[in-house]
Amino acid sequence: MATASRDAPHDALVVAISSRALFDLSESHALFERSGVEAFARHQIEREDELLPPGMALPLVQKLLALNDGAVGAPRVEVILLSRNSADTGLRIFNSIEHYGLGITRAVFTRGEPTLPYVRAFGADLFLSANPDSVANALASGIAAATILPSKAARVSSRQVRIAFDGDAVLFGDESERVSEQGGIEAFHRHETERASEPLSGGPFRGFLDALHRLQDAFPSEDAPIRTALVTARSAPAHKRVILTLREWGVRIDEALFLGGRAKGPFLEAFGADIFFDDSPVNIESARQHVATGHVPRRARPGGAG
C-alpha cells in the first residue's frame, strides 16, 4: 500500500478514479486518438454544458459516497478525480459531477502527464482507471489498482456496497497460483495441504481489504453498509489455508465461495457484486457478463506469463 501522508481521516476509505472510469468518454477519447489534442480540446469546450454519460464505475462511486450520509465530522469515504485533461477541458467533467450529485471536491488535471504521483500523494487505498498502463504502474508502486472493463452492471438491490475479490494474485500473493500453472491441480492441492498452517502472503489488494474492514468496524455487524465476498476457484482441501490466513490477518470476509473451477459470473450476480476484482482473463470474461469488473494484471515474470 501507498504510505504517503494524507489529511483525510485515518479510517476514511480513499478511492482515486480516472475520468474515463467515472464517465463514458469513449467518443471524445476516440477523437483524441484520431485527431489529436487540439481537436479533443475544442470538442470538450464546445460541449462543456452537455452531460457526460455514466461510466462503468459511476454506480459504485455513488454507493460509496452515500456511506457519508449521516457521518458526523469527517467523511467515511473520499473519492478523488484524476484526469489527464487540462483544467480548461475538464470543466465538462466537473459539470457532470455536479449533475450526478457526487460529493467529489478534490481533483487533479495534468494536461497529458501521468496521474500516478498524485495517487500516491493522496494516499489512495484504491485506484480505478480505464488505462491498463496506468493500472500496471500503480500496482508496481504498491497501490491496489484495477482496469475497469466494459461490463454488465449488476442490478441495484440495496444501498449496501458489495465488493467481491478473487483470492490468489489479488487478495493473496501469486505463489500458489504459480504452482498450479507449472505443476497442475494435483501439485497445487499437495502444495496447499502441506502448507495449510502457513499464512499466504498478501497480494495487491490486501491493503484495500484492510481499509474496508476498518470501515465495516464502524458499524454494528447487522447494519454494515459494506459486504465483501471472496470468490475463488479453490476448493477443498485448498480452502483451509485461505480461512486460516484471513483469521491470521484479523480481517472480515462476509461470504466465501470456493467454486472449484466453476464459472464465476453467475455466482457474482447471485451475490449482487457492485464490482469484482480478478487477475485471470478467463474469470474476467465470465464475470463481466454479469457484474462490473476490474482487471488486476499480474506483473511479468522471467520465463512466465504476467
Q: What would you note in describing this structure?
A:
With about 300 residues, the chain is α/β, with parallel strands linked by helices. The protein contains 13 helices and 10 strands. The chain folds into 2 domains: about 15-145, Rossmann fold, CATH 3.40.50; about 160-295, HAD superfamily/HAD-like (Rossmann fold). It has a 10-stranded mixed β-sheet. The protein is globular.
- Radius of gyration, whole Å: 20 Å
| Tally of separate domains | 2
Estimate what percentage of residues fall within beta strands.
15-25%
Mean pLDDT: 88
CATH architecture of the largest domain: 3-Layer(aba) Sandwich
- Sheet of most strands: 10 strands, mixed
Figure out the total of helices. Answer: 13
| Backbone shape | globular
Strand order of the largest sheet: 3-2-1-4-5-10-9-6-7-8
Could you state the order of secondary-structure elements as H and E?
Answer: EHHHHEHEHEHEEHHHEHEHEHE
Counting helices, strands and paired strands, the structural category is alpha/beta
Cα(first) to Cα(last) distance is: 20 Å
Full CATH superfamily name of the largest domain:
HAD superfamily/HAD-like
Number of strands: 10
- Could you list the spans in which at least 5 consecutive residues all have pLDDT below 50? 1-9, 300-306
- What is the C-level CATH assignment of the largest domain? Alpha Beta
- The helix fraction, in percent, is 25-40%
**What oligomerization state is this entry in?**
single chain
CATH domain topology of the largest domain = Rossmann fold
